[in-house]
Amino acid sequence: MIEWLGSQLSDLGARTEIFHDESGHKANLFATIGPDTDGGIVLSGHSDVVPVAEQDWTSDPFEMVERDGALFGRGACDMKGFIACAMAMAPVFAARDLKRPVHFAFTYDEEVGCIGGQALVSDLKTRGIAPGIAIIGEPTGMQIIEGHKGCCEYTTHFHGLEGHGSAPDRGVNAAEYAVRYVTRLMELREEMKTRAPRGSRFDPPWTTMNIGGIHGGVAHNVIAGRAEVEWEFRPVTSEDMSYMKEEIAAYVSDTLLPAMRAVDPRADIQTETIGEVAGLEPMAANAARDLVAELTGANGVDVVPFATEAGLFQEMGMDVVVCGPGSIDQAHKADEYVTLDQMSRCLDMLEGLARRLS
Ligand SMILES: [Zn+2]
């Protein structure tokens, strides 16, 4: 699909680059129509979808079906509808003498932690490409979204030393260290409530943290040699994101590990990152918001509870909004769809963009 999109865009004269991942099986696409300058507009979409396993679909999820004024298929609203609109308008962009470039940024593996997006952003930095604005086409019903929390998920593994339950001091109890770790996380969670930005519109307004699972140990009378904690937090600011990570890492290196290793130098705590998606922080000045408001006539902006690739582009110094066709209510479900009305509103926005840039 990425190769096909790339060749379509190349045929229109776009400068097209395909960046493969290490396996060579997945790739990001970055293509530019218009002048070779900074300050362009990125149209961003992810090419992957979530699985359809155990979902009861009326029709083949991988065969698009049109009925009742809507297009049905896996990824229809999340967010292949937006990619289709961007591709449909590519000839219109190509036919105009654009004063600012339009970039097509299509990524892989967004659904599993914005893996492709992170790679794309670092490739753009390496090449010194600095667009000014990004429109992330996740389904918002074509409303302007200027903020969402980040989402950081981890599994922390505790490696202790097993022994008989009657001699706890001779072992390193991984379950007990996991409990201390969780206790520290919960202290940090309370502290986060005091750090909520003024006027935060998120619900709740602060960075949240959740313990999703604790596993470990084998029997009542055995010192637990292994334990793991599954946890996540959803930062409202990049400061909270780094603070939480630094504080828990410091507790591990300064307090937990020295205590564990005093008994057994092989004891360890390893945190595995499942996914780290930065939030999109609402900004007082946001050229993307002003532009999309002008193009769509939308006069309100909102924040949403789901995470997108937007934060990655914001970290690059770009002004960013999320705005795309369809509803997040249909995403990830059986009989996912996007209405033709939403698609035509998106096409109108992009057509307006082509006029605005030329
Ligand atoms: Zn999506």
Features:
single chain, 358 residues, alpha/beta, Aminopeptidase, Alpha-Beta Plaits, 6-stranded mixed β-sheet, 4-stranded antiparallel β-sheet, 8 helices, elongated, binds zinc ion, zinc, arginine biosynthesis, Peptidase_M20
Please explain how this structure is put together.
Pfam families: M20_dimer, Peptidase_M20. InterPro entries: AcOrn-deacetyl, ArgE/DapE_CS, Bact_exopeptidase_dim_dom, Peptidase_M20, Peptidase_M20_dimer, Peptidase_M20A. Strand 4 and strand 5 form a beta hairpin. The protein is 34% helix and 26% strand. It folds into two domains: 225 residues, Zn peptidases (Aminopeptidase, 3-Layer(aba) Sandwich); 126 residues, Alpha-Beta Plaits (2-Layer Sandwich). Strands 1-2-6-3-7-16 form a six-stranded mixed β-sheet, sandwiched between helices. Helix 2 packs parallel to helix 8 and helix 4 packs antiparallel against helix 5. The protein is elongated and about 80 Å long. The structure holds zinc ion. The site of zinc ion (ZN) has 5 residues, from helix 2.
